[in-house]
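Exercise 7. Given the encoded structure of a 578-residue chain, write a plausible sequence.
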């Protein structure tokens, strides 16, 4: 009883309220999220299964309509022909349609007694039993529609052993000048069902079934022992039209049933949705883990808040001591008596003013340093020249006079072409020489770092191109493409393709990721957060002079190579000039 008489502190009240509220909110959020996620996933799976079933039905109906159109064409083509005097013409019509449709096994015309009027030779064992066939009787009994059936099995035509689907209908024909009734029979290769259903992916144990109007199984895509089909066929026949979630052999399945209008067959797709249950279980475990961690965090936060609220005077004193030590960022967060709160606000306002004055002074100093740094950055970068001169000194000290001469000559040509008497456009041959001089200097400076090859279509050399478009790309290939590797390779090609100059700089190396390529494109297009003086400079100068016709294309194969392509309009040799 003494425990209940002990007063509860403000800090404890704040802790209990904060912790309880956070726990309830997190619990409700987790339950709602799990419920909504499960519902959305189930809805999406069901929608997808229905769409798959719908597409399959459309495929079958399209095929069946084509068969009916063929049968109507045959009936229309033979309506004015006499079975006796025009027998050859009718046989030719049947044979032609059989040859046109690869899945058409044979076409027959029988009279009401089951005697063959037209068509190929009948199998000997079948000759006298046609009138007893179910498809024959159904066609006479229901003359208004086409009857589709699989009960016959193999073809009734001589020397044809294919499993067939029969399509029969009662029609009118002429014989010896008199109009009579008969039965038109089209035999379709049974494999057409397999062909139409082959590309359907319904997951593990998922399968496609076709049932007749009596619920009897005509086809299943399940391979091996059809244990799933035996169970799912019963479920599908009881659904008739619509969908249902069922459990077959401890596996969650979604059955969707639709009807083929012309045949009255049922098409059932059985999709495996067992993964949803596993996904929901995994999500529930993750939510429990997140909930546990969140509760721990909430408990910590609640304890911190309660401590801050329960000791306002101590907090204010601590803040004053910090300011005395020079920490003007310290703020006193106090709740409680009005006098203490007012004192804390006044203290915070005072420190805030001091902090603003100090921040303004720091900002002024930062801006001054930024301006100085900008001045330095705007100066010409002499590193390449300095490094080259250092290399020349080193070569001279080691008596490599031939390399000294080669380097000095290449450096002179490099800067002569780079200046180009102030011209913006130079011949392609000069641009290639500029790059070759650069590579000569770098290959002497970095021994065994890389080898290079330049192959340019001789037809390009006389055309003019904006200068200094290749050297920055080659520089990137050396420093960023090959990097620290030895025995790197660089290949530069120039061709004429569909009225454009196409230069490609290929280098071996680690390659570039898709994300990095996207960043490079952002850099080229002027993203101020990603400055660049190399490839961005080339891209923007090309766009300035050539517009959208010019393009820079970056492709890469991870751990193999990177290629930067420049696509520039091919213009008359003298058209571009200053």
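Solution.
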């Amino acid at each position: 009883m003494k425990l209940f008489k002990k007063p509860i502190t403000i800090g404890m009240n704040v802790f209990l309220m904060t912790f309880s509220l956070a726990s309830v909110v997190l619990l409700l959020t987790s339950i709602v999220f799990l419920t909504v996620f499960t519902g959305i996933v189930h809805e999406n799976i069901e929608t997808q299964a229905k769409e798959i079933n719908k597409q399959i039905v459309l495929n079958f109906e399209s095929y069946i309509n084509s068969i009916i159109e063929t049968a109507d064409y045959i009936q229309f083509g033979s309506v004015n022909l006499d079975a006796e005097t025009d027998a050859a013409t009718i046989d030719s019509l049947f044979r032609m349609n059989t040859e046109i449709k690869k899945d058409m096994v044979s076409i027959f015309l029988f009279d009401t007694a089951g005697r063959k009027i037209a068509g190929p030779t009948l199998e000997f064992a079948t000759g006298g039993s046609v009138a007893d066939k179910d498809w024959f009787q159904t066609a006479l009994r229901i003359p208004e529609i086409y009857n589709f059936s699989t009960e016959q099995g193999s073809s009734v035509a001589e020397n044809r052993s294919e499993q067939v689907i029969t399509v029969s209908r009662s029609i009118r024909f002429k014989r010896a000048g008199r109009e009579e009734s008969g039965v038109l029979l089209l035999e379709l290769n049974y494999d057409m069902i397999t062909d139409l259903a082959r590309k359907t992916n319904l997951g593990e144990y998922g399968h496609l079934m076709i049932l007749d109007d009596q619920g009897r199984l005509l086809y299943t895509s399940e391979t091996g022992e059809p244990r799933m089909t035996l169970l799912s066929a019963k479920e599908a026949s009881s659904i008739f039209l619509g969908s249902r979630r069922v459990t077959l052999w401890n596996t969650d399945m979604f059955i969707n049933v639709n009807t083929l209008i012309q045949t009255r067959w049922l098409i059932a797709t059985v999709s495996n949705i067992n993964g949803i249950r596993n996904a929901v279980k995994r999500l529930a475990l993750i939510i429990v883990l997140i909930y546990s961690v969140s509760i721990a965090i909430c408990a910590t936060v609640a304890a911190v808040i309660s401590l801050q609220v329960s000791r306002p005077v101590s907090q204010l004193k601590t803040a004053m001591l910090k300011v005395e030590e020079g920490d003007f960022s310290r703020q006193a967060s106090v709740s409680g008596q009005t006098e203490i709160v007012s004192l804390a606000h006044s203290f915070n306002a005072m420190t805030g003013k001091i902090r603003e004055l100090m921040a303004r002074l720091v900002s002024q100093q930062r801006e001054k340093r930024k301006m100085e740094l900008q001045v330095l950055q705007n100066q010409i970068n002499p590193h390449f020249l300095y490094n080259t001169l250092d290399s020349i000194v080193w070569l001279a000290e080691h008596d490599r006079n031939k390399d000294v001469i080669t380097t000095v000559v290449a450096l002179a040509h490099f800067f002569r072409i780079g200046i180009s008497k102030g011209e913006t456009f130079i011949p392609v041959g000069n641009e290639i020489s500029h790059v070759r001089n650069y590579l000569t200097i770098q290959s002497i400076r970095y021994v065994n770092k890389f080898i290079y090859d330049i192959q340019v279509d001789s037809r390009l050399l006389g055309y003019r191109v904006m200068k200094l478009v290749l050297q920055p790309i080659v520089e990137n290939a050396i420093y960023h493409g090959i990097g620290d590797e030895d025995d790197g390779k660089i290949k530069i090609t120039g061709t004429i393709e569909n009225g454009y100059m196409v230069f490609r700089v290929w280098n071996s190396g680690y390659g570039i990721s898709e994300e990095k390529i996207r960043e490079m494109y952002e850099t080229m297009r002027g993203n101020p957060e990603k400055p660049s003086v190399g490839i961005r400079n080339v891209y923007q100068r090309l766009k300035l002079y050539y517009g959208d016709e010019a393009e820079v294309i970056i492709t890469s194969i991870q751990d193999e190579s990177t290629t930067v392509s420049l696509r520039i309009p091919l213009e008359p040799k003298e058209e571009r000039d200053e």
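Remark. Confidence is low (pLDDT under 50) at residues 369-381. Students should compare their own answers with the one above.
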